[in-house]
Design a protein that fits this description.
The protein has helices at 19-22, 63-84; strands spanning 29-35, 38-46, 53-61. It is of the alpha+beta class. It has a domain at 24-84. Strands 1-2-3 form a three-stranded antiparallel sheet. The protein starts with 18 loop residues before the first helix and ends in a 20-residue tail after the last helix. The relative contact order is 0.11.
Length: 104
């Protein structure tokens, strides 16, 4: 007979994901705004050579969940860097006078 979890621990969460969501969306941009009761996080994609950002998803959450997300991301970045090394955040500027070609 299996033991029941201790009474002070919540039951384990069961995750499900719709197939249309399961493939994911690549984003390289986030914009965050907030008011006293919620955080709004827009995720989007910036394409080199273009000045616009296409917002692909908007997440609204409570301040508590925003802080929990912050902590979870920090923990996961730390684990990632222990496995794969530091994530570069500083990059050299391209040499003066060079540009990426603009798409036609």
């Amino acid at each position: 007979m299996a033991e029941a979890p201790p009474k002070n621990e919540p039951p384990p969460l069961q995750f499900s994901i719709d197939e249309s969501v399961s493939t994911g969306v690549y984003v390289n941009f986030a914009n965050i705004i907030h008011n006293p009761s919620e955080f709004v996080i827009d995720f989007g994609r910036v394409v080199p050579g273009r000045a616009d950002v296409r917002v692909l998803s908007r997440v609204l959450t409570s301040p508590l969940h925003a802080k929990q997300l912050l902590n979870a991301l920090a923990q996961n970045v730390s684990l990632y860097e222990k496995s794969f090394g530091p994530i570069r955040t500083e990059f050299d500027a391209p040499p003066q006078g060079t540009q990426s070609p603009r798409p036609n």
